[in-house]
Amino acid sequence: MLQPQSLHDYLLEKGFGLKDEAGTPRKMAHCTFHLLYVLFSEKLYRDFQNSERQCSRQELDARSTRANSPFWARVATEYTNLHTDTYNFFVVDDARFNEIIPQVVQMHLGPKLYEIWTDVRKRFMVAFRNSKRSGHHNPQFWDYCGGKIDVLYLHYWLQNRPGLFEFVCTNIPDEA
Q1: So what's the pLDDT on residue 126?
Q2: How far apart are CA 92 and CA 83, in angstroms?
Q3: Considering the domain boundaries, does residue 176 fall inside one?
Protein backbone atom coordinates (compact mmCIF):
# COMPACT_ATOMS: atom_id res chain seq x y z
CA MET A 1 0.00 0.00 0.00
CA LEU A 2 1.28 3.46 -0.87
CA GLN A 3 2.25 5.85 1.94
CA PRO A 4 0.45 9.25 2.19
CA GLN A 5 3.09 11.32 0.35
CA SER A 6 3.68 8.71 -2.34
CA LEU A 7 -0.11 8.30 -2.65
CA HIS A 8 -0.41 12.06 -3.20
CA ASP A 9 2.33 11.97 -5.87
CA TYR A 10 0.72 8.92 -7.47
CA LEU A 11 -2.66 10.62 -7.66
CA LEU A 12 -1.20 13.72 -9.28
CA GLU A 13 0.67 11.56 -11.78
CA LYS A 14 -2.54 9.67 -12.66
CA GLY A 15 -4.55 12.86 -13.15
CA PHE A 16 -6.67 12.86 -9.98
CA GLY A 17 -8.70 16.04 -9.77
CA LEU A 18 -8.37 16.84 -13.47
CA LYS A 19 -11.48 17.66 -15.44
CA ASP A 20 -12.39 17.13 -19.07
CA GLU A 21 -13.41 19.84 -21.54
CA ALA A 22 -16.96 19.87 -20.14
CA GLY A 23 -15.68 20.44 -16.60
CA THR A 24 -16.63 16.99 -15.30
CA PRO A 25 -14.09 14.88 -13.38
CA ARG A 26 -11.92 12.78 -15.65
CA LYS A 27 -12.19 9.02 -15.30
CA MET A 28 -9.26 7.20 -13.72
CA ALA A 29 -8.51 3.46 -13.91
CA HIS A 30 -9.63 3.16 -10.30
CA CYS A 31 -13.08 4.49 -11.22
CA THR A 32 -13.94 1.50 -13.41
CA PHE A 33 -12.85 -0.97 -10.74
CA HIS A 34 -14.85 0.87 -8.10
CA LEU A 35 -17.91 1.01 -10.37
CA LEU A 36 -17.74 -2.70 -11.19
CA TYR A 37 -17.48 -3.47 -7.50
CA VAL A 38 -20.62 -1.40 -6.84
CA LEU A 39 -22.57 -2.97 -9.73
CA PHE A 40 -21.67 -6.52 -8.69
CA SER A 41 -22.02 -5.90 -4.97
CA GLU A 42 -24.48 -7.89 -2.90
CA LYS A 43 -26.52 -4.71 -2.49
CA LEU A 44 -27.04 -3.93 -6.21
CA TYR A 45 -26.36 -6.86 -8.47
CA ARG A 46 -29.96 -8.12 -8.58
CA ASP A 47 -31.26 -4.66 -9.48
CA PHE A 48 -28.42 -4.33 -11.98
CA GLN A 49 -29.64 -7.46 -13.72
CA ASN A 50 -33.05 -5.82 -14.21
CA SER A 51 -31.79 -2.34 -15.04
CA GLU A 52 -32.28 -2.62 -18.80
CA ARG A 53 -35.71 -4.12 -18.81
CA GLN A 54 -38.35 -2.72 -21.14
CA CYS A 55 -39.12 0.85 -20.07
CA SER A 56 -42.61 2.01 -19.24
CA ARG A 57 -44.29 4.81 -21.19
CA GLN A 58 -43.99 7.08 -18.14
CA GLU A 59 -40.23 6.44 -17.90
CA LEU A 60 -39.83 7.20 -21.59
CA ASP A 61 -41.86 10.40 -21.28
CA ALA A 62 -39.88 11.49 -18.22
CA ARG A 63 -36.61 10.56 -19.97
CA SER A 64 -35.62 8.51 -16.94
CA THR A 65 -34.16 5.60 -18.87
CA ARG A 66 -30.71 4.09 -19.09
CA ALA A 67 -28.13 6.67 -17.95
CA ASN A 68 -30.84 8.90 -16.44
CA SER A 69 -32.74 6.11 -14.72
CA PRO A 70 -33.33 5.94 -10.96
CA PHE A 71 -31.09 2.85 -10.96
CA TRP A 72 -28.07 4.81 -12.19
CA ALA A 73 -28.79 7.60 -9.70
CA ARG A 74 -28.69 4.92 -6.98
CA VAL A 75 -25.44 3.55 -8.42
CA ALA A 76 -23.94 7.06 -8.20
CA THR A 77 -24.98 7.29 -4.54
CA GLU A 78 -23.49 3.89 -3.72
CA TYR A 79 -20.37 4.71 -5.74
CA THR A 80 -19.85 7.91 -3.75
CA ASN A 81 -20.66 6.44 -0.33
CA LEU A 82 -19.06 3.02 -0.61
CA HIS A 83 -16.19 2.39 1.78
CA THR A 84 -14.21 -0.25 -0.06
CA ASP A 85 -11.79 -0.76 2.80
CA THR A 86 -14.53 -2.64 4.67
CA TYR A 87 -15.22 -5.02 1.78
CA ASN A 88 -13.28 -7.66 -0.10
CA PHE A 89 -12.91 -5.39 -3.10
CA PHE A 90 -10.94 -7.69 -5.35
CA VAL A 91 -12.96 -10.70 -6.36
CA VAL A 92 -9.71 -12.58 -7.04
CA ASP A 93 -6.10 -12.16 -6.00
CA ASP A 94 -4.22 -11.11 -9.14
CA ALA A 95 -0.91 -9.23 -9.17
CA ARG A 96 -2.09 -7.19 -12.18
CA PHE A 97 -4.38 -5.32 -9.76
CA ASN A 98 -1.59 -4.27 -7.38
CA GLU A 99 -1.60 -0.62 -8.51
CA ILE A 100 -5.37 -0.23 -8.26
CA ILE A 101 -6.43 1.67 -5.16
CA PRO A 102 -10.21 1.26 -4.94
CA GLN A 103 -10.64 4.00 -2.36
CA VAL A 104 -9.27 6.58 -4.82
CA VAL A 105 -11.87 7.56 -7.38
CA GLN A 106 -13.23 10.65 -9.00
CA MET A 107 -16.83 11.38 -8.09
CA HIS A 108 -19.13 10.84 -11.05
CA LEU A 109 -22.87 11.20 -11.61
CA GLY A 110 -25.10 8.43 -12.97
CA PRO A 111 -24.74 9.32 -16.67
CA LYS A 112 -20.93 9.27 -16.47
CA LEU A 113 -20.98 5.97 -14.56
CA TYR A 114 -23.30 4.53 -17.22
CA GLU A 115 -20.83 5.69 -19.88
CA ILE A 116 -17.95 4.01 -18.01
CA TRP A 117 -20.02 0.82 -17.71
CA THR A 118 -20.95 0.69 -21.40
CA ASP A 119 -17.32 1.25 -22.37
CA VAL A 120 -15.91 -1.59 -20.26
CA ARG A 121 -18.81 -3.83 -21.25
CA LYS A 122 -18.16 -3.20 -24.94
CA ARG A 123 -14.46 -3.95 -24.54
CA PHE A 124 -15.28 -7.11 -22.58
CA MET A 125 -17.53 -8.30 -25.40
CA VAL A 126 -14.73 -7.84 -27.94
CA ALA A 127 -12.34 -9.84 -25.73
CA PHE A 128 -14.96 -12.54 -25.10
CA ARG A 129 -15.82 -12.91 -28.80
CA ASN A 130 -12.12 -13.12 -29.67
CA SER A 131 -11.58 -15.80 -27.03
CA LYS A 132 -14.35 -17.93 -28.56
CA ARG A 133 -13.33 -17.58 -32.22
CA SER A 134 -12.49 -20.72 -34.09
CA GLY A 135 -8.80 -21.56 -33.87
CA HIS A 136 -8.27 -19.70 -30.59
CA HIS A 137 -7.64 -22.25 -27.89
CA ASN A 138 -5.75 -20.18 -25.34
CA PRO A 139 -7.43 -20.69 -21.93
CA GLN A 140 -5.98 -17.40 -20.56
CA PHE A 141 -8.70 -14.76 -20.96
CA TRP A 142 -6.10 -12.07 -20.21
CA ASP A 143 -4.53 -12.73 -23.63
CA TYR A 144 -7.69 -11.36 -25.27
CA CYS A 145 -8.07 -8.26 -23.08
CA GLY A 146 -5.71 -6.04 -25.05
CA GLY A 147 -3.80 -5.15 -21.89
CA LYS A 148 -6.94 -3.71 -20.23
CA ILE A 149 -7.06 -4.92 -16.64
CA ASP A 150 -10.57 -3.56 -16.10
CA VAL A 151 -11.81 -5.99 -18.77
CA LEU A 152 -10.12 -8.82 -16.88
CA TYR A 153 -11.70 -7.60 -13.62
CA LEU A 154 -15.15 -7.71 -15.26
CA HIS A 155 -14.37 -11.25 -16.46
CA TYR A 156 -13.55 -12.28 -12.89
CA TRP A 157 -16.76 -10.71 -11.59
CA LEU A 158 -18.79 -12.61 -14.17
CA GLN A 159 -17.18 -15.83 -12.99
CA ASN A 160 -18.17 -14.87 -9.44
CA ARG A 161 -21.74 -13.90 -10.42
CA PRO A 162 -22.51 -16.29 -13.30
CA GLY A 163 -26.18 -15.26 -13.33
CA LEU A 164 -25.10 -11.89 -14.71
CA PHE A 165 -23.12 -13.28 -17.62
CA GLU A 166 -26.14 -13.60 -19.91
CA PHE A 167 -27.35 -10.11 -18.92
CA VAL A 168 -23.97 -8.55 -19.72
CA CYS A 169 -23.56 -10.41 -22.98
CA THR A 170 -27.05 -10.18 -24.43
CA ASN A 171 -28.30 -6.73 -23.46
CA ILE A 172 -25.81 -4.49 -25.22
CA PRO A 173 -27.32 -1.00 -25.40
CA ASP A 174 -27.65 0.63 -28.81
CA GLU A 175 -25.12 3.34 -27.98
CA ALA A 176 -22.46 0.87 -26.84
Answers
A1: 93
A2: 19
A3: no
